[in-house]
Amino acid sequence: MNALxxxxxxxxxxxxxxxxxxxxxxxxxxxxxxxxxxxPPLLMLHGWMDVGASFQFVVDALAxxxxxxxxxxxxxxxxxxxxxxxxxxxxxxxxxxxxxxxLQTSHPAAARVDLLGHSMGANVAxxxxxxxxxxxxxxxxxxxFGLPATQPSQAPDRFLTWLDELKQPAQxxxxxxxxxxxxxxxxxxxxxxxxRAEWLAAHWSRRDASGVWxxxxxxxxxxxxxxxxxxxxxxxCWQRIQAPVLWVEGDRSEIGKLWGTRYSKEEFHQRVxxxxxxxxxxxxxxxxxxxxxxxxxxxxxxxxxLA
Length: 307
Hints:
Helix content: 25-40%
Low-confidence stretches: none
Mean pLDDT: 95
Strand content: 15-25%
Radius of gyration: 19 Å
Distance between the termini: 36 Å
CATH class: Alpha Beta
Strand order of the largest sheet: 1-2-4-3-5-6-9-10
Shape: globular
CATH topology: Rossmann fold
CATH superfamily: Alpha/Beta hydrolase fold, catalytic domain
Number of strands: 10
Largest sheet: 8 strands, mixed
Order of helices and strands: EEEHEHEHEHHHEEHEHHEHH
């Protein structure tokens, strides 16, 4: 790290909680004394190939102190990696439910929380908000679009792809320095400032015994999933959401690069119309990692929505 690296405004602390047999890492900013029924803990769920520390820039930009908690999902960051060859989406729901049980035990004000998710974390949050509506006061969805609708005819090829991938070792490349990791982050996201990239790289990776910097993510996450995404099942969960929802996307986010003509932003907005109370915003300039690109603007939206 050089002298110009990012310097956090708000200090964090780590906590480890065992849920469903795995030791989960949680980052805390502030503590339970800051929480109340009107201002409950804010739980932030990171996306695929990310870590809870990713929210540091947004937490720093908040105008007021509050208790913020950001867990690392299973197989990411400092949370245990399960002995598995496939990650199943329902496991994230089970982990979230267990984490909230544990938090409620130690933090009475966590009977209801404000829940924020980014990307994969937001997809989990949207489902959970419909399944356990009584546990949420407010819900924030950052670019959690869901997935393209599927047809049963796609199942054979999906299963075959999965079976073939199981025969190959899952791998992630290593890097010769933390600066190289930062450069990798900026290659994926050109809007990410160098100081933030260098700070995040040190939390996104660790140096192994041979001196190589390894990404803190299980490479098994890269494997295809054998089960098809069931849009109608997701919509049935979304329809049960009771909490007001804040939707935020980046003006440079292009889901077309992922899904082509199979899924568009227009279709997502048609889907989310089943949710009763949705406030929508677009940040500019911002891509998919809008909490890195525009943390100050996002913090302003959060302060107003969560007030």
